[in-house]
Amino acid sequence: MKRILLTVLSFLMLCSITACSTDDNGAKKQPNDLLQPQTETLTEADNSGTTQTDNENKALIVYFSWSGNTQSAANEIKEQTGADIFEIEAQTAYTDDYNRLLDIAKNEQDSNARPAIAKAVDNFEQYDVIYLGYPNWWGDMPMILYTFLDEYDFTGKTIAPFVTSGGSGFSNTINTIEKLEPNATVTKGLALASSEAANCSSDVSQ
Length: 206
Hints:
This protein is α/β, with parallel strands linked by helices. Helix content is 32%, strand content 15%. It contains six helices and six strands; from the N terminus they run H-E-H-E-H-E-H-E-H-E-E-H.
């Protein structure tokens, strides 16, 4: 009888130990837990040990337009990229007379003028890519573009120029931008004839 009783007590003790086993964290394990391998849930991370996130470059379209051609191109770029947009406007507005404008533009070039800009870009430092648009005046950028490039820090930014012209394209303006902004990356850019600016969807896409 004693042997039977001892056997029963031993069995009950074994069951109690099995049922109350704990894991390494002190939590009770159920009997089925002891039969399953313990695994950890891992979070995908990069080599630095931080979870990866998608960083998109923030873009701004900056343009100067007298006749409206460069503005048309700027609006198309905005339509396709969703970038913010800023129009360079002279503090003293340019004349609407084309022949007088030619003389003004030439005089500004000859005197290396820096026409004042009416408004400023808010938080320019937040932008990584600058689409920079202008007409070709006398084989160069309008001098108000020089004002803009002088006033803002383009260090580490990408400048993507676009130009409208009667057929001269960029002339030497891309090289000029590279010299003025040596700490920026300047892309090849997009040149549009004035007649193409109003319908430049495919050119902008390419």
